[in-house]
Structures are given as structure tokens and as C-alpha cells.
Write a structure and sequence with these properties.
Elements (H helix, E strand, L loop, with lengths): L7 E5 H15 L10 H6 L2 H10 L4 E4 L2 H9 L5 E4 L5 H9 L3 E4 L2 H10 L4 E8 L7 E2 L3 H10 L3 E7 L14 H16 L5 E5 L1 H12 L7 H5 L3 E2 L23 E6 L2 E5 L4 E2 L5 E2 L4 E6 L16 E4 L2 E6 L7 E4 L1 H4 L11 E7 L5 E2 L1 H7 L4 H6 L7 E4 L5
Parallel strand pairs: 1-20, 2-3, 3-4, 4-5, 5-6, 5-7, 7-8, 8-9
Antiparallel strand pairs: 1-10, 10-18, 11-14, 12-13, 14-17, 15-16, 15-18, 16-17, 18-19
Helix pairs in contact: 5-6
Bound molecules: pyridoxal-5'-phosphate.
Pyridoxal-5'-phosphate binds next to helix 9.
């Protein structure tokens, strides 16, 4: 798309591939891995991310919506596509038509598939072990096993559950350990038939890597001993799911960038932006940047967060507007001709051209949220520029 405003998200596919190989190293050779590309690959561009991962050998990809799966099929993705959200009868028909893999979490979904299928269908079965969102409770495991043994059409390939507190997965007495123990009991019903099991999200994978380095009674042995399948999301995009995880080397994939539109010189006492919430306490140079909350820079960062400008962290001053935000760049531009800074790069998070880095975690913490939300909130009108994407 032609770009008249230089505000965009750089997507570094080489970093994505680096993260993918780091995850594969933790996995070893014979483990199921389903990279999560739902929600537009956490805002990074689901088609391009899926193409890159498929090229690097990913055999399965995870989406939430049937719509997301159809988009990937339309783009020529051949890998298995797991649809996690569930579906109704009409959804079951689409899943079959486009050869997506249903993650089933209710009896209604099972019946919809049975009645829509003409040929055998691969199914993954989701269990609730503590998240209390979707999935069968463990007391259904025996009945489900009997059902799938008899079903001519539905071929059970895997069972899965999802961690509520992946950040404690390395510990023997955490919530994840409790969920893992319950899940082990569920998997016992299906084991004899070669059905595999997956449960490790980014927290779980990082926890596994950490637990392997631990030699204390605190270690969650259940996570180390089994060949649990992986479903990495956040980690693929280069961020740790908790501060105490650092065993896996990750490189952030997205850099959210804009440029200086103009610079205003203001006097002591002058205010900036709506509500006049920031006032200059010295003669100041204010850079106006064409990116705002409609692009995913939440208004809550007003007067709190920073951006990278000429390799320095500079404060966002005044309220973030729908299409603009303002930076106090006085310390950087002092003594220079201000016109030379027009079109200078501004990095809201990620890397600048010289590899200076500002973490998306800063924006996340100033908006009282998590980095997952910061990445997925980057607006639709922000073009994604892909670096290192090979043609398929
Ligand atoms: C079922 C399921 N598996 C895996 C993931 C990936 O989680 P994360 O991004 O923490 O790795 C998600 C994300 O929410 C999910 O819903």
C-alpha cells in the first residue's frame, strides 16, 4: 500500500525465525509444536508470519477464529490449522470444507462434526483443568474416550489443556503443577491409542527451560518428564511472559515507528495537547509525531511513557490524541537547527536503525496491561513492513 504518513510497524522476520529455532531447541525433535498465529499473529501479520514459519518447517498453526483459518488457507498456507475457539453447525461445515482442525470443547461441537462429516476428521480435544474458560471437565474424560473409540468419523489426535498461570510452571507447588497433575490423569485415558497431549504456552515453555536448570525440590518434575506439546504465542514474537524467565534467548519482532512531523518552540507556561495537562517549565522544543491512540498508542501513556528519538529516550508530553502525540525533545535538539529533525525516526517500541531498543513492556506497564495486549492493539491502519520475508 502506498504510504503518505510514515507511521508503520517493522516486522523483523529474521527475529521471528530466531525465536522459532530457540523454541525448537527447547522442544527437541519429536514434540508437537503449534505456533499461535491468532489475532493477526499477535498483530504481526498472520499471513506473512505463517508463511515464514511454514517455510521453517512448522507443521501446525493455531488460530482462534474460523475466519482466521480461512484467510490463511486463501493465502495458500498448507500446514495444519487448529481452530481453538469452537464452532456451531455452520462453523463445522466450514472447518471440514477448508480442512481446518477443530479443537473441540463441547458435546454439541462433537455432534455438529459427526453430522457434517463425510470422511474421517482429525480432532483435538480440549480439557479444562483450572482456567474455567472453555473445555470439558476432567470427569468427562472416560466417556469421551469411549465415544472416540467407537466413532467412525472423528479421529482423536490430541488432547490439550491451557495454563492459567504459566509464569509458575517451573515450580513444583504452583497452579500450573496442579493443572499438570490433573491433566496427566486425563491423558491416562487416551494414552494407549497414541493420542498426544499439548499444554505449554510461552509461560510453560519458559518454565520447562527454567525447570531443566533447577536442581531443587522446588522444580516441577511433571513439566520436565513428559513430552508435552508446545503452543507458543508471545515468545515467538520475542517477549518473555514473566520477568523471571531468561533461559531462552528471544528477539522482539515488531518495532512501532513514526517520524517527526514538525517541531514547535514553546515558552515557559505554555501547555501541550487536550486538557492542557502538561505545561513547559523551561523554553521547550516539542516534536509532533503522527501516531495516536487510533494506531494503538493508548491514551493512558500520556505524560508517562517514552519514545526513542535520535537514540535517546524522550518523554511523551500532554495527552495522546487520536492521530498525534507530542514529545519533549528539548535536550536532544538544543543548539541545533530544528528543521534538520523533521522526518527523524521516532520509535514507540522496538529497535531503531542503530539497534537502540525500547521494550513494548514499558508501554504495557504504563497502560496497566500486558505486552500481549500492547502488541495486538497496534491498529489496523498501521502498515506492516516485513524485513527478511522470503518469497514462497
Ligand atoms: C489455547 C492457547 N494456547 C496457547 C496460547 C499462547 O499463549 P502465549 O501467548 O502466552 O504463549 C494461547 C493464547 O492465549 C491460547 O489461548
Amino acid at each position: 500500500m502506498e504510504m503518505f504518513r510514515r507511521t508503520y510497524a517493522d516486522i523483523n522476520i529474521e527475529n521471528l525465525i530466531h525465536n522459532w529455532h530457540q523454541i525448537k531447541n527447547v522442544a527437541g525433535d519429536d514434540r508437537f509444536i503449534c505456533p499461535m498465529v491468532k489475532a493477526n499473529a499477535y498483530g504481526h501479520g498472520d499471513v506473512q508470519v505463517s508463511q515464514a514459519l511454514e517455510r521453517e518447517g512448522a507443521l501446525g498453526l493455531g488460530v482462534c477464529l474460523i475466519e482466521e483459518g480461512l484467510l490463511l488457507r486463501a493465502a495458500g498456507i498448507k500446514a495444519d490449522i487448529l481452530v481453538f475457539r469452537g464452532f456451531d453447525k455452520r462453523g463445522a461445515e466450514k472447518i471440514l470444507e477448508y480442512q481446518l482442525i477443530p479443537v473441540v470443547s463441547t458435546w454439541e461441537q462433537i455432534h455438529s462434526l459427526e453430522s457434517a462429516a463425510d470422511e474421517p476428521v482429525k480432532v483435538h480435544l480440549k480439557f479444562n483443568t483450572g482456567m474455567n474458560r472453555i473445555g470439558f471437565n476432567s470427569d468427562q474424560a472416560e466417556k469421551l474416550d469411549e465415544y472416540f473409540r467407537k466413532s467412525e468419523k472423528l479421529k482423536l489426535k490430541a488432547v490439550l489443556t491451557h495454563f492459567a498461570c504459566g509464569e509458575d510452571s517451573h515450580l513444583a507447588n504452583g497452579f500450573s503443577a496442579q493443572q499438570t497433575k490433573e491433566f496427566i490423569q486425563i491423558t491416562e485415558f487416551f494414552k494407549s491409542r497414541g493420542v498426544y497431549s499439548h499444554l505449554l504456552n510461552s509461560g510453560g515453555i519458559a518454565g520447562l527451560a527454567k525447570a531443566r536448570t533447577m536442581n531443587t525440590p522446588d522444580k516441577n518434575q511433571h513439566i520436565v518428564d513428559r513430552n508435552w506439546g508446545f503452543r507458543p504465542g508471545l515468545m515467538l514474537y520475542g517477549y518473555q511472559s514473566a520477568d523471571h524467565f531468561s533461559e531462552i534467548d528471544l528477539k522482539p519482532v515488531m518495532s512501532l515507528k513514526s517520524v517527526v512531523n514538525n517541531i514547535r518552540s514553546i515558552k515557559i507556561g505554555d501547555s501541550v495537547s487536550y486538557g492542557a495537562t502538561w505545561k513547559a517549565t523551561r523554553p521547550s522544543q516539542i516534536a509532533v509525531v503522527p501516531i495516536g491512540y487510533a494506531d494503538g498508542v493508548h491514551r493512558l501513556v500520556s505524560n508517562k511513557s517514552h519514545a526513542l528519538f535520535a537514540g535517546k529516550k524522550v518523554p511523551i508530553v500532554g495527552r495522546v490524541c487520536m492521530d498525534f502525540l507530542m514529545l519533549d525533545v528539548t535536550d536532544v535538539v538544543q543548539g541545533t537547527e530544528t528543521s534538520r529533525w523533521i522526518e527523524e525516526d521516532v520509535i514507540l517500541f522496538g529497535y531503531d536503525e542503530k539497534d537502540n531498543f525500547l521494550s513494548a513492556n514499558e508501554m504495557a506497564s504504563h497502560t496497566n496491561t500486558i505486552v500481549w495486549e500492547t502488541l495486538t492493539s497496534v491498529g489496523e491502519r498501521v502498515p506492516r513492513h516485513f524485513k527478511g520475508l522470503k518469497k514462497t
